[in-house]
Amino acid sequence: MSRLRALALVLLAAIYFAVPNARLDFTRFNCHDSESYLALSYSLTHGMGYTRSLIPGDYVPHKMWPPGLPVLLSPATALAGDALDWARVKRVMSTLGLAGLIPLWLWVRRLADARAADVAALVVALNPFYWHFSHQAMTEVPLFIWLIGGLWLVDRTWSRPTVSKGEAARLGLLLGLGLLIKAHVAGLALAPLAYLGSRRGDAPTGRSKAASWAVFCLALALPFCLWLARGWTIEAPGADGYSQLEQLRMADPMDPTSEMRGPGDAIGSMITNLRRYAIYHVPTQVLPGLWPPPVFAWRGSGWPALALTLLLVGAAWNARRGGRAAFLVAGFLGALNLIYGFGGSPRFWVPVSLLLLTLVTIRLTAAVLGHGSSRRRILGLATAVALLVNLGAYIYAHERHPYNPGGPWAELAALFDGARDLESAGVLTPNPHAFQLWTGIPAPMTVGESTFEHMVARLDGRGPQPPAEAALILRAEPWGLYELATPTPGGELVDDPPGYPMDW
What is the DSSP string of 153-183? Predict the structure, then answer.
């Protein structure tokens, strides 16, 4: 069996590394955040401090995103020159995705047995969304891995009759470091609740565990509280200047001037996110064959989507304590997504869906193991083939159309690629982090305080436009790269320039 596991891991590694996706992450799931995380990582590993500004000496404080993912990305940025090796970035993420199968296997083995662990690791690894986000510099896969590792450690610790306060504090502090990847890790605070009731009805034991749980929660929160305390001591402009807690209250989390929502608005957002998005995302991300966007793009599709979501949630229920702990964590993640203004985004539901997928797989594996050996082999082979075909179809579709179809992102990526040989002291462009990390050419994010020799603008007249005397030197409709007649301050090119131009 160990040889089969080793062979399966080699085959999975071949699938993951054969298609490195060495491109900018201008996908339908994201067009900005990846490059911001990489900019933070690059600045850290090149001694410029914790800033998204890639111009030496032009430090811009940052206090929104904690440094967890930038640290994980450091192997891809530490040895980089002016431009990143994007194939290395994606190899780092793929390695994280493959390594995450280890804690997944260990956790499922504790909940069920080694055979169920084998199946769950294979099913998750062949899930198109796990593959996709193992090739994108985002938090979704690291978050899922941390949650699974946390659930495994919680089960090892809290399934014992007693847990000392010292053990609880150490475990909480360790798992709390995951909040520096993403605040959703706070859901692990609920996991020990599944273990508080004593199997023998020993009330003193239950009270002792409850006290240890309180210590665990405090220790879990400590790393994130220290990050928030750091933010209180600094001033930062624009989107760099507000915390993730403030984002939860904003009507538009990417607009620093957005008004804060009251309880009524927050409830309205939760209903909208659930009705219009969540019920579609869960079945799309869990069930093979439902990932193509047209599957639910018809009137009345919400009813079958709702039915499938409820069916999957019911099938994920596991009466064992470890299963209940995972259910609590998944529920917390889902609730947090519903509250968030942009919580309808599909990528925020990937960790939730992967948790449900794992729990459903455990339950279905137990049912299949009740059949005879010949039928088990047939079912196992048919499932493996179906999952491979499903992932292969997803990879093929993604490679044919890798960029967000909701805007001219493929054209912007082509323009950036064509500008690699440009010589410039400064380029004003949408997504300056992506431009500079891709080309190695300076693209200051501090528009108002910088001077530019070149400018990217839309040829259809939308957004900021260059002066009349500027010369068009590169075209990728609807984008154009212009050479300015003279070095020009950003304040003359963009009215009321923001901290950085997000999208034009």
Answer: HHHHHHTSS---HHHHHHHHHHHHGGGGT-G
pLDDT, tens digit (0-9, with 9 covering 90-100), for 246-299 = 888 888 777 777 788 888 888 888 999 999 999 999 999 999 999 999 999 999
Within 10 angstroms of residue 143's Cβ, the number of other Cβ atoms is: 25
- Among 130, 129, 134, 136, which Cα is nearest to 33's? 136
Question: Is the pTM here over 0.85, yes or no?
Answer: yes
| DSSP codes joined into one string, 123-137 | HHHT-HHHHHHTTSS
Report whether 120 contacts 105 (CB < 8 A).
yes
Q: How wide is the angle at C-alpha 44 spanned by C-alphas 38 and 45, nearest 5°?
A: 90
Q: Residue 26 — φ and ψ, nearest 5°?
A: -90, 55
Q: Mapping DSSP to helix (H, G, I), strand (E, B) and coil, where does residue 101 land? A: helix
**Is the torsion defined by CA of 374, 379, 382, 387 positive or negative?**
negative
Condensed to tens digits (0 to 9), the pLDDT of residues 429-466 reads 999 999 999 999 999 999 989 999 999 999 999 989 99
pLDDT at 368: 81
Query: 2: which residues sit within 8 A by CB, 6+ positions away?
Result: none
Question: What CA–CA distance (Å, rounded) separates 377 from 308?
Answer: 27
Q: Which residue has the tokens 């967890």?
A: 68
- Helix, strand, coil percentages (3-state) for the chain, rounded to 5, are 60, 5, 35
Virtual CA dihedral for 483, 485, 489, 490, nearest 10 degrees? Answer: -30
Determine the pLDDT at residue 115.
Answer: 92
